[in-house]
Amino acid sequence: MKILFLIVTLLGGGVVYAQSYLPVKRITVTVDGYPVLSPDGKKILFDSDRSGNSELYYMNVDGTQLKQLTFNTANDDSPVWSPDGTKIAFTSVRDDKEGDIYIMDADGKNTKRLTSTPGDDSHPKFSSDGQRIIFNSARTSPDLSVEWSKQTLEIFSMKLDGTDVKQLTNFKTICTYGSLSQDGTKLLFRRVINTPGFNWDLSISKRDSEVFVMNLDGSGEINLSANPAYDGWPAWTPDGRVIFASNRGGIPSRSALYIVNADGSGLKILTDPKYSYNQHSVSSDGKWILAERNAESFAGIDMLELKE
């Protein structure tokens, strides 16, 4: 039985959403994040600090047969599968004080460092054909000595061996969580703009975090989230829509998941704002969302069936 909830958003200008929330299955109850379902739908890849620092793991979708993939005193996080399931890209600070992009076989072997320029490189995503990795980098920031939030981060892509690096954005602000559409013609990303907005805790901010999509050549830019709330963590669905997290529900430091068409139309809320979902991904068949759910005592993984 589905229960219909009526929500009046605090930050949405009085917009009313009548929505039946997605059914939820609890997968983990420890500090786990950035979950991604394998292309064959059998395993969940994620990062976890259960060993004392952030390492990479995978397990069956029912939570059994947990396997640790990385063993390092530095943090490894934000892993993603390659489309064929044979490779895993991730971020690590193991060779530097700042993040770099690494790639390894799906069993944790043959790890290779792909980036080594000054500045943080993080949040890798594979192109749908598996030939390139999209990531955000501070390498063009004019001053890397200032705190991360005051640096410039742009979206880049590269081949799987770290060569042929191409800059995809040039906004001279914070651009993160970049990914390409299935046909490779559009870039989805989070961008901080210089208009008043809200921080994660709903305190007033001079800048606003929004979700954008544009053509790969930089034309046709659309602000998909268009709200003074903190909007971020955008992810494509296989049918070309976008799921993102937003705290526009009016609860400090908590975000719900929303889905929107790539032209900005058809915005719908998917999860209950009293929880806090982010760091999500969508399964390759479009049936499931995997997301971190934050609570007072844990940050675990939930598996949500994408029904509308």
UniProtKB/TrEMBL annotation:
Pfam families hit by this protein: PD40 (PF07676)
Taxonomic superkingdom: Bacteria
PANTHER family xref list: PROTEIN TOLB (PTHR36842:SF1), PROTEIN TOLB HOMOLOG (PTHR36842)
Family classification: Belongs to the TolB family.
Protein name: DUF5050 domain-containing protein
Taxon lineage: Bacteria, Pseudomonadati, Bacteroidota, Cytophagia, Cytophagales
